[in-house]
Amino acid sequence: MLNRNSVFVLDTNKKPCDPIHPGKARRLLSEGLAAVFRNYPFTIILKSESKPTKKYRIKIDPGARYTGLALLSDTDLVWCAELEHRGFEISEALRERRQVRRSRRNRKTRYRKARFLNRTRTKGWLPPSLISRVRNIKSWVDKLIKFAPISNISMELVKFDMQKIVNPEIQGTEYQMGELFSYEIRQYLLEKFNRTCVYCGTKEAVFNLDHFYPKSRGGSDRVSNLVLSCVDCNQAKSNSLPEDFLSDRPKILEIINKQRKQPLADAAAINATRWKLKEVLESTGLIVETGSGGLTKYNRKRNGISKSHWTDAACVGTSTPDSLNIRNYQPLIIKAMGRGNRQMVKPDKYGFPRTAPKLRQKSFYGFMTGDIVKAVVTKGKKIGVYTGRVAVRKTGSFNIKTKTETVQGISHKYCKNLHKSDGCTYSFGELVKQKTVNFVKKITETLDSPVQSHMFDTSGLTAEIEPKARRKKKKLKGTDGEQLSLF
Ligand SMILES: [Zn+2]
């Protein structure tokens, strides 16, 4: 059976209960024991009192464009989502506003002394595009806390654990030379050398970890002796000394020598948003666990799970169970859209007003731009059923953005509100097959007589894929030539 996102359940006092299977929710709804409370994420409200029986943990993998969210109960994945941030949209909108404003003041106002550097910023200030990411995540964590009995939060705080790399002794020798350690190292080196081959400068390649001074020539395992190299360069260099290999390119030798000894100075700055997020999440009062990107990747590979934003989220932190019960999941895709525009008049490309000033009113006929509506059109040219995000007009003739197209001129009379605007738009992601179910084995198990099994063509079915982590269990010692995937 396929796993699907569970349905959130509130009891009659709006207290969160255990999330349930969609089939069970359907039964409760049809028997009149519950009602739909909210569409995204799908939540029902019971008509009786109930209490949660399990504890849940929300796991977060914050990223620049996408953030993965996963809700776990013990070893089971209960719910997952991918949150798309606005990011550059925000800086773009601010830039546009600045330009229009500047040009207007240039035209309309007398000369004024420049006074753009007289502002102070509060402590912990982040640019609007970054803080919006933090707020998007906070708003979703708050929402989930309302709908599910969540007691813990896990988040990926850093790409690599700096302390463990510099001072591996703190974790004992097993960790020092172990698999997890090499994952941290990889993350660190990818970041340090900006995902670029140090020898030829290519970015589009599978990378190896290269011992700058080969081990066979007395080179050490220290991080400062490790560089990032593409497979071709790594093989060409083989076990020659860097001075020999780069004899015709002394400039590059100089650069690498400088770069490899330099610690990653701005590692903390890269993660500024994540530290802010940690602070914000801790304000919810729940216990916040943090993990590194290296640990996430290690956990994911160990469980043989394919890479996506939400699977990464499910593998964040040391609390990740040894076997994670993820089969086929379809994440909820959440896209942050903002809550409208302050701009009163739209300018044309020369900066002149193009439209009449916008009305102060935002809602018309009970609908607001950003609501998700269902329109059943029974008359006229546009007969059909349309579901999607609505853009309202004062005239009552709305536009609906469906999955495939934008339908214009739908009367408000045909529309029914499914979900009130909350600054996001929703869709469902592709059904991700984590491990293909072993149908071949299942069929042979259930059908005992060989005659019957011939009736089924099993040649096209896929067998279970061996998880990758089990195939290679190398230690850091032989990192030369080890494959390093781009991610
Ligand atoms: Zn190269």
How does this model look, in words?
With 487 residues, the protein is of the alpha+beta class. Among the domains are: 162-266 and 471-484, no CATH class; 363-422, SH3 type barrels (Roll), CATH 2.30.30. 30% of the residues lie in helices and 24% in strands. It is built from 16 helices and 23 strands. The protein has helices at 22-30, 88-108, 128-147, 162-166, 172-177, 179-192, 231-237, 242-245, 250-261, 267-270, 272-282, 293-302, 309-314, 439-446, 450-454, 468-471, and strands spanning 7-10, 16-20, 34-38, 43-46, 56-61, 66-73, 76-84, 150-158, 207-211, 226-230, 287-292, 328-329, 332-336, 363-364, 367-368, 372-377, 384-391, 397-401, 406-411, 415-419, 424-428, 432-433, 483-484. The strands form six sheets. A seven-stranded mixed beta sheet has the order 11-8-5-6-7-13-21. It has a five-stranded antiparallel beta sheet with strand order 19-18-17-16-20, with no helix packed on it. A hairpin with a 4-residue loop joins strand 5 (56-61) and strand 6 (66-73). The relative contact order is 0.13. The model is unreliable at 168-177 and 436-487 (pLDDT under 50). Zinc ion binds at residues 197, 199-200, 202, 229-230, 232-233.
